[in-house]
Amino acid sequence: MFDLKAIRENPEAFDRLWAKRGLEPLSKKILDQDKLIRKAMQVVQEAEAARNKASKQIGAAMGKGDKEEAERLKTEVAGAKNVIAAMGAQVESEKGQLDNLLAGLPNVPFETVPDGAGEEDNVELSKWGTPRDFDFDVKAHDDLGTDLGLMDFETAAKMSGSRFVVLRGALSRMDRALAAMMLDMQTAEGFEETSPPFLVWPKALYGTSQLPKFAEDLYPAGEDHFLIPTAEVSLTNTVRESILEAETLPKRMTAHTPCFRSEAGAAGRDTKGMIRQHQFNKVELVTICKPEDSEAEHLNMLRCAELVLQKLELPYRVVELCTGDLGFGARKSFDIEVWLPSQDTYREISSISNCGDFQARRMNARYKHAAKDNRFVHTLNGSGLAVGRTLVAVLENYQNADGTITVPKALVSYMGGLEVIG
RNA sequence: GGGCGGGUGGCAGAGUGGUUGAAUGCACCAGUCUUGAAAACUGGCAUAGGUGUAAGUCUAUCGGGGGUUCGAAUCCCUCCCCGCCCGCCA
Question: Is the ipTM reported for this complex over the cut 0.85?
């Protein structure tokens, strides 16, 4: 959500930044609507003031036993009430329209975010590690897993359909091992391990801005809840509707949860293998901080996510997302892409975003900046990392000619000492 | 899932239809006193929004939403949350 005052003071800046996302100029429309609302509100409030005043006088008149005067005042109030009802309804309707418009608008990117239409225009910031030279034909992770008998898409399809998998034995263990290692690393970096709900109300999803615009990407659960598409929703909403003490910031949280996504818009993409599933595990990082700290925290989260890939010795690169690839709630995002030999390319394994006060406004999450000065916090989220995709990367990068998988050194202790799978 | 009892300012806790945005206590801030501190005393102390250069003023808010009424923290409906009892259950 946006600060109408800020738009009022600087409409050109908002229009320019929305334009970076390919949106029409909207400030005028927003401000005209706002003006309309405030004007109508003034009329309502004046009528309300008249009603309140007359009502008090009625009380006084009744006290004195002056029934005539009371009756006269009642007719006065009736007139005011007509105005309140009529104009009030108009205000509600105009406000609703403005809210709908604003709720559907993406966050404004930082000025520095590179312009671009899509993924291909993202800007590479750094590279780490060197893709390994294979002296045999590399297999894709799903072939490796299927051949080992430890990754079973057919069985999953029988009970749940496509985009699900059954992992068995050492691969199931590896999924747990990776998550455990990530949690150990992130908690060592000061992120508090958290076990949040996996089912949330719509208002929580509204707060982190998956709703109202992206309902079709979500799985409803029962009458009132949705399955979380990412732990970002649960972790970020831990501070909703609250005023935090400044000294409790920054709050850094991490959680290992399943994530559920309908992948409605992804028909035909990554249909094979574990890259894009309806359900996957992820270790999430969320930071709640003061506005002046958010850029530093953003870099810190990037560093923490990178550490996992370095520890696993998986080659990766970091890109900054261009305006065309930037998520709805983000002002600036880094993606970490891991090397996948079977695809001969880097694929996203983590996305780390600074949302500024966008989500905080939608959640009403503030902190005490000074006495009588409560300000919105900044929220950031990122994967640290996507467990399923990390498993994919380990399988592909650590595969051997005979189809076995060498367990990364860092993971051996988490795998109960197992050094080779298969 | 059923029944009963609750939800009031940072906290505790009054208030059951008429100057109650809300008593009182604690906490907090400022001042007086004091060498300093404590105590005592005095004053201040919610949020959001409209309007105004400002002082100010107006509106809304006593879990959320809706209703009754000239007037609602107080009455009604509904949802949420907390507590207790019963049922069910990993």
Answer: no
